[in-house]
Design goal:
Number of helices: 2
Helix content: 10-25%
Largest sheet: 6 strands, antiparallel
Radius of gyration: 15 Å
Shape: globular
Order of helices and strands: EEEEEEEEEEEEHEH
Distance between the termini: 38 Å
Oligomer: single chain
Structural class: mainly beta
Length: 148
């Protein structure tokens, strides 16, 4: 059974899935490992409140490994026919250019949280606006294209 489409709206200047709260993000670490020159290793703590959702997005050329800490996350990548639900101790991977079409808390009662570990080129990180540039929402791109 495929998931119903999500309606993304702008509320108070922020893109959100209609009727659902957005995630919060906390920087945990930003490292420059000497064995991968020119790359940053960035770890974020992503917390989804009950019934929370993130609008469809990409992470540019970053590779992302998500490690579930608590709760359950429902995620759908690229053209996968179904979303997958993952709980504590499970993980998922987003290859560079991956389209994260659905990202949401699978529970309406409990929060979900995971570490998102990014491997990104230092130059792209700086050109993309730093931490804010790590998540590129589809609607932000569409809005820019409409402006011309």
């Amino acid at each position: 059974m495929s998931s119903p489409p999500q309606k993304v709206i702008k509320k108070d200047g922020v893109w959100t899935v209609e009727g659902r709260p957005r995630e919060t993000i906390q920087l945990i670490s930003h490292l420059h490992p000497p064995n991968i020159p020119g790359k940053s290793l960035i770890t974020l703590l992503v917390t989804l409140p009950p019934n929370g959702a993130t609008p469809p997005h990409r992470h540019g050329s970053a590779a992302v490994l998500a490690l579930m800490l608590r709760g359950a996350s429902r995620d759908q990548m690229n053209a996968e026919p179904e979303a997958s639900v993952r709980g504590p101790g499970e993980s998922f991977y987003e290859a560079p250019g991956c389209h994260h079409v659905r990202g949401e808390n699978a529970s309406e009662a409990e929060e979900a949280a995971f570490y998102a570990v990014f491997v990104v080129d230092d130059g792209e990180f700086e050109r993309g606006g730093g931490y804010e540039g790590l998540v590129v929402l589809d609607r932000d791109v569409e809005e820019e294209e409409e402006k011309g």
